[in-house]
Design goal:
- It is a single chain.
- The chain has 155 residues and is an alpha+beta fold.
- The chain has 2 domains: 46 residues, no CATH class; 63 residues, His-Me finger endonuclease fold (3-Layer(aba) Sandwich), CATH 3.40.1800.
- 48% of the residues lie in helices and 15% in strands.
- The strands form 3 sheets. The chain has a two-stranded antiparallel sheet with strand order 1-2. Strands 3-4 form a two-stranded antiparallel ribbon. A two-stranded antiparallel sheet has the order 5-6.
- β3 and β4 form a beta hairpin.
Length: 155
């Protein structure tokens, strides 16, 4: 199997590692090497930015959905369909506090997972998901935090 490719910009034969992956190409890699793409982007910043901006705004919904799909797959190896089914099972609410919106920049609930095993659990609002993470999912630490809050909430 051929492990090299000729860059269409610099015309040099380079290893496939020198090319970004591209599912639409026969060999699964971009035609231009990473170096040439980087140089082109640096030398044509305004042109590249305008193209990205024009494309994004002309295809906003499509881009948002593509980014969401890619993010769910890349981060958690789940599909948009799984997310929607889970959201329906949870009646659109955080499994801990019952909030219907996440807060912050996004109203979407977050996919919660075990950081050690990678196992997907449920959907949580941003504060609940962040809270578990900050407490390192340590049940003893969470119990101590509950005791602390209880101790200081009594008048």
């Amino acid at each position: 199997m051929k492990r090299t490719k000729k860059c269409s910009m610099c015309q040099l034969e380079k290893s496939l590692d020198s090319f970004c992956k591209h599912r639409g190409m026969k060999d699964g890699h971009n035609n231009n090497c990473k170096e040439c793409v980087k140089q082109y982007t640096q030398n044509n910043k305004e042109k590249v930015q305008k193209y990205k901006s024009d494309y994004y705004y002309a295809n906003r919904e499509k881009c948002i959905e593509r980014d969401r799909k890619n993010s769910l797959k890349r981060k958690y190896n789940v599909t948009v369909e799984w997310y929607e089914e889970q959201l329906e099972k949870q009646n659109g609410k955080c499994m801990i506090c019952g909030a219907t919106e996440s807060g912050g920049n996004s109203s979407a609930l977050h996919v919660d997972h075990n950081h050690e095993t990678g196992q997907i659990r449920d959907l949580l609002c941003r504060p609940c998901n962040t809270g578990l993470g900050l407490f390192k999912e340590n049940t003893e630490l969470l119990k101590k935090a509950i005791e602390y809050v209880n101790r200081h909430s009594k008048h």
